[in-house]
Specification:
heterodimer; A: alpha/beta; two-stranded parallel sheet; 39% helix; 10% strand; disordered N terminus; B: 105 residues; mainly alpha; Cyclin A, domain 1; globular
């Protein structure tokens, strides 16, 4: 078997580097994370296996689960009613674990457009949509979206007519939000799976709308 | 007086729509927090995480990236609670850095 790793003089690594991970220097904070993990395992607070499983669980969460709920809400008005009342309970109907922190669903209509933020930190329905995008946690987004939502939305390419009210929901550690986007025109004949494929993360944050087909 | 993290409504520049894939060490920090706060463990709450982040002060809050703030807060909380000591932490950090140095040799 040939050695497919090309070892130049300026390439002293035993295997190809992965951009973003191995190129990065090993910082004090990375060392701190490693040290704390080892200490907590040594002290039987949790096991290495608990840690591995938790990282897998985090990786398993994505906007796809929220998208499934939105698609069901579009096709089943009774389900939508239950979702608007209690997202976490409605999620269980679809075998989705949305966690224990209450999530409130806010519905976009022709009269009102909703957008979510956490001005104080980074609260996000992460148990349903996965980890938040970087900009959601940024100073600019957290500062501005509650003061000038239309302007911020325009930066995302989303123009909300003056005739439509904008509602900004500030999340807390104890109450998270998700947006139920409007079903796009032209999707009438689509089945639930196909509809779920139209639903983007940003439409459930409320910085974008789903374009008509 | 408005505290540093309480930024809602203030002026700021355009929202830079940057994203990155979370790196393994960032996911591990997230996992540490979830394990410490889960029903079985209950060693630390999300409120305690936030208090620790907000107490980093304006300098560190802006200088550290997101998960650097988290691990700093988690570590301070664990030291305060007596779960780990500063000496243990220092030793383990040196070992971790030494291991990394070996992979660079």
């Amino acid at each position: 078997m040939s050695d497919h790793h090309h070892h130049d003089d300026d390439w002293p690594y035993p295997h190809p580097k992965q951009p973003d991970t191995e190129d990065a220097p090993f910082t004090d904070h990375m060392a701190m994370a490693e040290a704390v993990t080892e200490l907590l395992i040594d002290k039987n607070i949790f096991t290495a296996d608990d840690m591995r499983k938790m990282v897998e669980y985090i990786d398993s969460k994505s906007p796809a689960e929220g998208a499934r709920m939105v698609a069901r809400a579009w096709t089943d008005p009774d389900f939508k009613g239950r979702m608007l009342k209690d997202v976490n309970a409605a999620a269980k109907e679809l075998d989705i674990d949305a966690g224990t922190i209450p999530i409130r669903c806010v519905e976009n209509t022709p009269e009102a457009h909703n957008v979510i933020v956490c001005t104080l930190c980074s609260c996000y329905p992460r148990m349903l949509l996965g980890l938040p995008p970087d900009w959601y946690k940024s100073r600019a987004y957290r500062s501005r979206v509650i003061r000038e939502p239309r302007k911020v939305l325009a930066e995302f390419g989303t123009d909300i007519s003056d005739a439509v009210e904008t509602r900004v929901h500030d999340s807390t550690a104890d109450l998270r939000y998700m947006v139920l986007p409007m079903r796009p025109k032209g999707s009438e004949g689509m089945n639930e799976d196909a509809l779920a494929g139209l639903v983007t993360r940003d439409s459930m944050i409320g910085v974008s709308v789903i374009k008509d087909l | 007086m408005r505290r540093h993290h309480d930024m809602g409504g203030l002026d700021a520049g355009p929202v830079e729509q940057t994203e990155h894939d979370y790196s393994p060490w960032e996911k591990r920090v997230d996992a540490i927090m979830r394990l410490l706060s889960d029903e079985k463990c209950q060693l630390m709450s999300v409120d305690e995480l936030r208090r620790g982040i907000e107490n980093l002060g304006p300098g560190a809050y802006d200088e550290y990236n997101y998960y650097e703030r988290w691990i700093s807060s988690i570590t301070n909380n664990l030291i305060e609670k007596g779960v780990i000591t500063v000496d243990e932490l220092g030793t383990k950090m040196e070992e971790a850095k030494a291991r990394w140095q070996e992979t660079q040799a």
